[in-house]
């Protein structure tokens, strides 16, 4: 992944030497308190992350997602790019965040339809998450353009 990010930033610089690159991180999926993931989503019967146990959820958060976020931030900074840290700024809007969740639950029906059937969110940003992430990206771009 590190090598891929470096290559990507190198290719951006070659194609657009004066561009201000912005790398957007991923939203946090699992909250600090993983017990929130053991309750069904509001108005539903399914747990936000299905039957993934708490140890696996903690591993996903602390051993996969947070280090990935940190790597992306490090590589963006090393390349002189801006990094939008969605992970650390969406802690209350995880898939297990109840009414505030910004990540749709794994099996929760989304607004997207395929062949007339609603597709599940499969742990992707919902409207709340989309709007929150858009605001964070816009804030970063505004900072770049006014600096």
Shape label: globular
Mean pLDDT figure:
93
H/I helix tally: 3
Strand order of the largest sheet: 1-2
User: What radius of gyration results from the CA coordinates?
Assistant: 17 Å
Distance between the termini: 30 Å
Describe the model.
By secondary structure, this protein is an alpha+beta fold. It is built from three helices and four strands. The chain has a two-stranded parallel ribbon. Strands 3-4 form a two-stranded antiparallel sheet. Helix 1 (2-15) packs parallel to helix 2 (54-78). The longest helix has 25 residues, at 54-78.
Task: Fill in the keyword field for this structure.
alpha+beta; two-stranded parallel ribbon; 4 strands; single chain; two-stranded antiparallel ribbon; 147 residues
Brief description of this entry?
By secondary structure, the chain is an alpha+beta fold. It has helices at residues 2-15, 54-78, 127-146; strands at 22-24, 82-84, 109-114, 117-120. The strands form 2 sheets. It has a two-stranded parallel ribbon. It has a two-stranded antiparallel sheet with strand order 3-4.
In terms of topology, how is this protein built?
Elements (H helix, E strand, L loop, with lengths): L1 H14 L6 E3 L29 H25 L3 E3 L24 E6 L2 E4 L6 H20 L1
Parallel strand pairs: 1-2
Antiparallel strand pairs: 3-4
Helix pairs in contact: 1-2
């Amino acid at each position: 992944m590190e090598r891929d990010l470096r290559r990507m930033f190198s290719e951006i610089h070659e194609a657009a030497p004066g561009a201000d690159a912005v790398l957007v991180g991923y939203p946090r999926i699992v909250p600090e308190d993983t017990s929130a993931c053991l309750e069904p989503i509001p108005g539903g019967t399914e747990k936000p992350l299905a039957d993934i146990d708490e140890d696996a959820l903690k591993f996903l958060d602390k051993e996969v997602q947070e280090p990935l976020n940190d790597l992306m931030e490090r590589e963006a900074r090393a390349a002189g790019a801006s990094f939008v840290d969605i992970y650390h700024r969406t802690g209350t809007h995880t898939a297990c965040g109840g009414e505030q969740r910004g990540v749709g639950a794994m099996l929760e029906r989304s607004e997207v339809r395929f062949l007339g059937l609603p597709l599940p969110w499969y742990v992707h940003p919902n409207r709340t998450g989309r709007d929150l992430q858009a605001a964070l990206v816009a804030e970063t771009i505004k900072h770049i353009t006014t600096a």
